[in-house]
Amino acid sequence: MLTGNFGIFMKHDVLIFAVMTAVIVSGCSSDGDGGNDGGKPNEIAVTPEQKVVVESYADFSFDLLDEVVGMAEDGKNIIISPWGAANILSMLANGADADTRASIADILELESADIEAVNSTNKYLYDNLSSLTSKVQMSDSRALWTNAGYRIFDSFISPIEDYYYAVHKDFSNPVQLKRDIDDWAKSKSNGLIPALDVEVDNNTVFFLADMIYFKGMWREKFDRKDSKPGKFNNADGSVSDVTMMNNELTACFSSTDEYDCLKLDFAKGEYSMLVVLPAAGTDVRSLTRNLDVDDFDTSVAAGKFGWYEVPVTMPRFEADCKLNIDEVFAAMGLKSGWTGIAEGLNGAGIGALYIYQASRIAVDEEGATAATVTYTGMDTAVMFPHAEPFVVDRPFIYLLRENSTGVMLQMGVIERL
After folding, report:
1. What is the per-residue pLDDT for 388?
2. In terms of CB atoms within 10 Å, which end of the chain has fewer, N or C?
């Protein structure tokens, strides 16, 4: 069973996906035909070959969430970053043997284990995600520390430097390495993740990390004077006191028998947070585990999204989560052949690879700030119809996403505030 530390403020079991993704909401574009008076959003154009990888990542995102939810401790909030996880696996693939590389391709839902195509697509997405709009702060930083006592293969280091822009440093002092890692995490997350508190020693062969940071202001902000004390119904039946934000928004909204979904845009709509509120009496985890990208696109995105005037009540909240996801990847079929990383890594005396994610998100009247670090190492406005009030007072799902590519930056399930 996975365990995690989480904290957030809200009313029932609510499932939230914090995801930056390029899921195209075909029925509700953020342009002049909708509620966005700031012009059409910037988009990331992809080639047919790149689109195959991007769509594979969308499938992987929901698969990963399903596995994590199935293994996670009941009653805890869950936050993951599919984009961060995909990048770590892709970087590791450069040091994997053929069988392990093939297992990574299977996990990422890729048609082939062509690491060159994956590396180049990830580089293209990296180059465009952070420069999509000046109105949103979006950064993705990578760093690689390698033990000076090992001969680390250039075939592992060079692609990570060239395609993923990782800063590479050798280390010989584990105490200093731990300080350097924590300083890097604090700096690249702008203090949102102040330290990783990892265990490293002289037997650590390498340490590889990917830090995603996002800060965006709502297209339509909430007014603090309208925020009021409220109640959030937690998944375990307890009730938490929270601050509820209130506003009547012009926003994309969709309603199905299983859930309602509200799309909250940042800037001109390049990035959005989707808040998925299960129907009353519907268990948030059951909904999560039954949700896949095809179902989501069909029931929410494809034509059922429309522009509405929506009275919105949702909590101001903060949440954090740390998960050991190498257990998840093992359940998804990840093999463990890493002979391409360093001389002598033939299985004898080498400890297991570990992969963790640590995430944090803060949502208030101004917008949302989120960060996820994924790390691994080895030891040895128009007139619109009105919708029903959207009251987030029970567990929910949120997706923080980039709207033109399908890249999931973070996903979360909020069960307790």
Report:
1. 73
2. N
Decide the pairing of beta strands 167-171 and 136-147: parallel
Which whole number is the average pLDDT over 335-344?
Answer: 77
What pairing do the DSSP bridges indicate for beta strands 367-379 and 353-363? antiparallel
Q: Two tokens at 364? A: 């208030």
**What pLDDT is attached to residue 146?**
93
Give 17-29 pLDDT, tens digit per residue: 333 333 333 345 5
Q: Strands 271-278, 228-233: parallel, antiparallel or unpaired by DSSP?
A: unpaired
- Residues 6+ positions from 47 with CB-CB distance below 8 Å: none
In angstroms, the Cα distances linking 12 to 94, 179, 362, 399 are 44, 40, 19, 18
294: Cβ contacts below 8 Å, ≥ 6 apart: none
The total of other beta-carbon atoms located within 10 Å of residue 367's CB is: 20
Identify the residue with better confidence: 239 or 411: 239
Backbone φ, ψ for residue 69 (5° rounding): -60, -40
Angle at the Cα of 239 (from 233 to 245), degrees rounded to 5?
65
DSSP string, 18-62: --------TTS-SSTTTT-TT-PPP-----HHHHHHHHHHHHHHH
Residues contacting residue 252 through CB under 8 Å, at least 6 positions apart: 25, 27, 28, 30, 34, 35, 262, 263, 305, 306, 307, 308
Q: Does the pLDDT at position 228 exceed 90?
A: yes
Return the ∠ at Cα 151 (arms to 147 and 154), rounded to 5°.
105
**How far is Cα 121 from Cα 112, in angstroms, rounded to an integer?**
14
Task: Give the integer Cα–Cα distance in Å for 66 and 291.
Answer: 8
| Residue the block writes with tokens 């700096």 | 187
Cβ pair 405, 123 in contact under 8 A: no
Q: What is the mean pLDDT of residues 217-234?
A: 95
Q: What is the rounded CA–CA span in Å between residue 6 and residue 8? A: 7
| Residue 100, SS3 per DSSP | helix
Span 132-186, pLDDT tens digits: 888 899 999 999 999 998 888 999 999 999 999 999 999 999 999 999 999 999 9
For the chain, how long is the longest CA-to-CA vector?
68
